[in-house]
Model the fold of this input.
Amino acid sequence: MRILYVVGTRPNFVKTAPVIGALRDRDPEGRHAIVHTGQHYDRLMSEVFLEELGVPAPDYMLEVGSGSHAAQTARTMERLEPVLADEKPDLVMVPGDVNSTLAAALTAVKMGIPAAHIESGLRSFDMTMPEEVNRIVADRFSEWLFLHSPEAVTNLEREGISGERMHMVGNTMIDTLVALEGRFRAAGAAAQQGVESGSYVLVTLHRPALVDGPLLGETVSQLAALAQQQPVVFPVHPRTRKMMEGLEPDAPGLHLIEPLGYLDFLSLLADAGAVLTDSGGIQEETTYLGIPCFTLRDNTERPVTLTSGTNTLLGLDPAAIARIPALLAERTGAPMQPPPLWDGRAAQRIADVILG
Ligand code: UD1
Done:
């Protein structure tokens, strides 16, 4: 089989690495070509991830870089089209919900090439999120839909998508986490940041709704206040770093650091007392690891992390950060079972479906 994998951003690499590995192992004679769109391009946002995940060097680098949604998506489509024309794949694999996902799914369908969507069926029902638009388009036009969450079936059925296209395979991001567990448990990232295991709140914030407007200043003030009670470690995404210029407070317990490689990040995540985030993937990783997660959004496309996980929605409200110590004290700490099929074997199931 000839398969082309299109990745562009940090979470794409994490979700696709095990799928590339499983399909290469099971079909070594096949063509497995990797296209990196270049949506993320800083070494810490891209190369370091590919190295740590053991992803082979991409066969194509499209170098689309940053830009408006239309410009980034259009550039990706324009540069991907000739690659698809040359490679003539039987299948284009697209993960997640970023602009690279949208561009790859659209380019493939317009060229009559079947696409497969990893992480299909998630919905926040919030059309102001760029990712929601990307998910809907990728699902509408992909022939194979790989699901990891029970509500995905209902969401897709509601959109009139036939059950034949849906395959409940489990969570490939958790495959990666399971595969890296020995290494990240030994990484000791908390000590490197000068914080004690279990004592700190790990923060990641990068969604436009939070960081591209006035809420960011208020958030930083709240984090500075929280840091007076317990250490706060915040690896700052480049989008957030740009918007934060001039806002950095002088708060000794607030560690504003560069983005981390994946092993160091997972090490900090696994040893955190709690996590504050607006990321989707981190809501899932904390659920699997049993770490309390507070999500600074009004909604989540991953409700399974609320019902069978450790996630709490705080709302898009920086003032809610002040509630974290009390919410942590109230937790019963009852052990949780991760959702079904979040077991490290999702990529094998995808290979079963594709190779039959
Ligand atoms: C993108 C995805 C988001 C995902 C996130 C993961 C879309 C619409 N958004 O958001 O769903 O959760 O990736 O991290 O696809 N930048 C750099 N270096 C880089 C990459 C970005 O400096 O390597 C800066 C640039 O200033 C850029 C900004 O970050 O303009 C935003 O990058 P972009 O890829 O447009 O969106 P993200 O916020 O990273």
